[in-house]
Amino acid sequence: MVQTLSAQTCCSGGVPLAGNLGLPAGEAGQLQVGISYDLNRLRSLFTGSEALNDGSRIRNTQTILLESSYAINDRWSIDILLPYIRQERVINRGNTATDVTNGLGDAVALLRYQWIQPDFGRRWQWASGAGIKFPNGAADRENEFGFTYNADLQPGSKAWDLILWNRLSHQLASRPSLSIFLTAVHRRRGINDDYLAFNNPVTMVRQAQTYQFGTETQLTLGLSDQLLFFDRLINPGLSLLFRHAEGDRTNGEITPSTGGDFLFLQPSIGLTISASLSWQLAADLPVYTKVTGTQVAPTLRLNTGFLYHLSTKQ
């Protein structure tokens, strides 16, 4: 018998890889290193677009993200993203059951190209990128009884993903410090062909299922500004994020209660601490949620971190 646990409770509590890609464009030879903390709290139970008055299921995902970007020249750059994840699931149906997993998540490498470069007097900027998510994170975490957790509670996915990234921005002529931007990220998920694997004690043959997370598309439309405040530059921003996730597949068949459409309002604030160091805080506030089946959906997401940049040119 193939070992299974309870059905997945959501498709939206995963690791925030796609939404954290794409550091600001740097000059040739510039290295940027960022570290951030991401908290995703899921406490809202939905059936379709209807919110249910049910607090029996809670999900919390906490992630430490280490990101670096190196500008090879004025047009080409490469980004590396490495997460460490702690996931917690609480189910309260008379008795409270808590499951916790943690570990190194899947890494991402993204190669970017500047079609239209930022330059003095040039108000448009356009960059594209393509990348890969590696299957380096653990996908076989078990509970205290030796049963493997479902895919949505694992630090890694044990699958290769293809990521396409695009960003277009424009500085207003009437206010050059104000930019309007559009970012699109498409993530094609690979297949884990060693899902819930175990050795059959009768046949002594290793058996496994296949699992594939649903293809994901994100569109972000927003604006950001620069203001001088007590000799410091601050960067307020506001954007709308639309996320569409297709249903996951187990053994090629759609997994129930996975996939959906989500719309978030994203306020943010940044602070320039020094010529080489900056800080940022951002939040995701749900505006619209429509899930397939019944799922726990995001209630609040917070992300804060520091970005350091230096030039490797001599």
Q: Give, in order, the helices and strands.
A: EEEEEEEEEEEEEEEEEEE
Could you give the count of β-strands? 19
Residue share in β-strands: over 45%
Amino- and carboxy-terminal Cα gap: 63 Å
Strand order of the largest sheet: 1-3-4-6-7-8-9-12-14-17-18-19
Mean pLDDT: 89
Please state the CA-atom Rg, rounded to the nearest Å.
Answer: 21 Å
- Helical amount: under 10%
Number of helices: 0
State the low-pLDDT regions, or none. 1-13
User: What general outline do the C-alpha atoms trace?
Assistant: globular
Largest sheet: 12 strands, antiparallel, barrel
> SS-based structural class?
mainly beta
Which descriptors apply to this entry?
single chain, 314 residues, mainly beta, 12-stranded antiparallel beta barrel, 4-stranded antiparallel beta sheet, 0% helix
Q: What does this protein look like?
A:
There is one protein chain. This protein has no helices and 19 strands. It has 314 residues and is mostly beta strands. Strands 1-3-4-6-7-8-9-12-14-17-18-19 form a twelve-stranded antiparallel β-barrel. The protein has a four-stranded antiparallel β-sheet with strand order 10-11-15-16, with no helix packed on it. Mean pLDDT is 89; it is low at 1-13.
Give the topology, please.
Layout: E1 30-47, E2 50-52, E3 57-71, E4 76-93, E5 95-104, E6 108-116, E7 124-133, E8 161-171, E9 179-188, E10 192-199, E11 206-212, E12 216-224, E13 227-229, E14 232-245, E15 249-250, E16 253-254, E17 260-272, E18 277-291, E19 294-311
Antiparallel strand pairs: 1-2, 1-3, 1-19, 3-4, 4-5, 4-6, 6-7, 7-8, 8-9, 9-12, 10-11, 11-15, 12-14, 13-14, 14-17, 15-16, 17-18, 18-19
